[in-house]
Amino acid sequence: MAAAALITENFKFVSLFFKSKDVMIFNGLIALGTVAGQTAYNIFAFDCPCSSGRNYRYGLAAIGVPALVFFLIGIMINKSTWDLVTECLLRKCRKLSGAAAFALLGSIFGRAVVAPLTWVVISLLQGQAYTCALSEFIDPGTLEGFPSGQSSEVMAKFPCQQSVPAELHGFLAETERRLKYESQLIGWLLVAGMSVMVFLMQCVKRCCSPLSYQQEDYWSQYRNNENILFQRTAAVHARLLAAESVKSFFGFVALEKEEKELLADYQSARPICSTNWNRVTGVYLYREKNGLPLYSRLNKWEFGTKSLT
User: Fold this and answer.
1) Interatomic CA distance for residues 65 and 38, integer angstroms
2) Could you tell me if 218 and 190 lie in one domain?
3) What is the structure's pLDDT at 228?
4) Is residue 258 situated within a structural domain?
5) At which of 170, 192, 208 does a domain end?
6) Is residue 239 part of a domain?
7) Chain segment 265-274, per-residue pLDDT in tens
């Protein structure tokens, strides 16, 4: 039991550590996981059909389909996506300017493309999928000494060395070298292009921000801490409210020791009306009121509640 408790506490510490750090750490972990997955796929699952007409489709699918899946998953698991959806449903995006919408969409897509781009780049640098896809399009006339009259079907067999006719084995190395050169060149150009784009976007973000660097860092810490505390409190609130409902129905509720301590500490939980949920949900950009900063919708709601009292 003591070992389990120690492991649990260490896990909580590690999770909080990563949650409190910059988003670059999270993106780095996603990229590393994608690299591992792509490498494992190439080793254990990639199998070029080595057939004219099929190579191209299979190679492009091996690069594009996982990238598309990762992109859609990145969009779905991003909280900002659903904040934007809620904002459009509840407030018709009336308070969301074009610049703010562009910045928000840039943030959503920027995080969502980390895994897809990593998959595409690693695929291109390793070259297997590209070699499979483009082998049938190599012009035999560009290979010195290559027998004339060979069809694309023969060239499509080059990714599978055992399927290549014996008299053409001498051209395997040159063909593979040429295709890997093209594949890796495209991969490095993609890396360079994305690096320049990220640099320019960061420069624009810093130059257009109304906040100083220190206050923007504070705002980031505030949002992170608010989210952690909100989620933790919401979990306790939901458990207490559920316990009251179960007790009302059965006449008693079977609680574990930790839950009994929660009930002793907090007694009960009151339901929260939909109006308040809507007021603290959605897109929110930095604003001020009476010279005081409002860092989130919850912060704005709390400020409004105090002003009414």
Assistant:
1) 12
2) no
3) 93
4) yes
5) 208
6) yes
7) 887 788 899 9
Q: What is the pLDDT of residue 130?
A: 93
- pLDDT beyond 60 at 183: yes
pLDDT at 144: 78
The predicted pLDDT at position 22 comes to 55
Q: Are residues 107 and 124 in the same domain?
A: yes
Q: Are 226 and 301 in contact (CB under 8 A)?
A: no
Closest CA to 284 of 264, 299, 304: 299
Number of residues that make up the chain = 309
> What is the domain range of residue 115?
22-208
**Which of 58-62, 102-106, 196-200, 211-215 is predicted with the least confidence, judged by mean pLDDT?**
102-106
